[in-house]
Amino acid sequence: MRARLIYMDSIARTIGTTAEAPALPRKLFDTVLVKIAARCNLACSYFYFFFSEDQRWREQPPQMDLRLFAALADNLADVLRTQVFGFSVVLHGGEPLLLGEENLQAAFKSLRAVLPAEKVPISIQTNGVFITDSLLDLLSEFRVTISVSIDGPRQVHDVFRLTHGGRSSFDQTIQGISRLQQHRESEFLFSGTLSVVNHAYPPDETYKFLKSLGSPKLDFLYRDGNHDRLPSGKSSFHSTEYGDWFCHLWDIYIADPSPVPIRILDDIAKLILGARNQKEGLGSETFSIAIVDTDGAIAKNDTLKNSYYGADCFEKKWNVTTDRLVDVANDEEYRAYLSLQLPSSEICRSCDLLRVCGGGMTLYRWSRENGYENPSVYCHDHQKLIRHISDSLWKHMNRHH
User: What pTM value is reported for the model?
Assistant: First the structure.
């Protein structure tokens, strides 16, 4: 019980500075996600980039040419001069570390020459296999953080995160995380772990294992899917397999006397108590996210690939070598893309949980019949989890206030 009180009180203390904050000027971009590699050393069967119906990655350069980084850096510097706030740059893939340390060093030099670390955090999302001591020294030099994708203990991780030859990647990932933990600047470098939920395995096993890695923050993702192609392990639109798993995780989380922050659970709790959302997929705020592919093409959030072929493409062929990101952000088509984050389904718009749920991620709403005008395929999972956390919070507040 004491652990629960500590957690509830810490959540409540964060609300005062956010719940009544004034509206902020619009950012042109919150995040620019750069696909520096369009190939991967693993064959994670749930990864939308390689295993969706849209296979255009085969036509893209395997890696971003270093000459492109100069144009990208100029473009990002232009954004920084134009908008009031800083923004995040995420180096992604495929597997971004396939670029190699020498090329990464050149890329970091281009970016950091115009993007100061105090205003523009740069991060890498990796499977951890290629983490070396020299790579970590390089990241430290250019103030780049790293997050590692790992789904849980071996029996969970090895369900989907295998090599192209069907072998386990677990030991290599653990070795990479161990190097990260032992680095002199691990506190700065290690931003956390990212896991895709496999509800066939109890959340207590997954949570206990991820906590043992020394990760400073945990993040969990739902499995990709929509109304035409249900997520793996979800039996129907009305079923709550994932909601049940997250409810169990919440109970484990708040009972832990020394919990590791779990973003999705913390965000839901804060939204229930009146804060604004800090990331897409929850709440009523929208977030401006642009993708830059390995050929320099500018695209919408590439998770939309799950919907239909070309769903992440703009009609106009924008590219960082010929166009300004600032102009993209002010284009009518880009604004229409951002508006997709807000649910249009009447079921969502009339729901009493909308301010917290936000309708979920856009990709989960798709059907060929109605386009994106559906509630999330995880609607009932969201409802169950939000009500469970809400009941837990209010019981605490009523008991102690």
Answer: 0.91
Angle, CA 176 vertex, CA 175 and CA 181 arms, to 5°: 95
**Which H helix or E strand runs over 183?**
none
The neighbour count for residue 100, using CB atoms within 10 Å, is 13
User: Whole-angstrom Cα distance, residue 395 to residue 393?
Assistant: 6
Write the pLDDT tens digit of every residue in 279-291. Answer: 889 999 899 999 9
Helix (H) or strand (E) holding 220: strand 218-221
CA atoms of 163 and 170, how far apart (whole Å): 10
Instruction: Set out the domains of the chain in order of their start, with CATH numbers.
Output: 2-397 (3.20.20.70)
In order of 89, 106, 113, the CA distances from 102 in angstroms are 20, 7, 17
Element (H, E) at 50: helix 48-51
The tokens describing 384, both together, are 């169950």
Rounded Cα gap, residues 73 and 326, in angstroms: 13
The contacts of residue 399 (CB under 8 Å, 6+ apart) are none
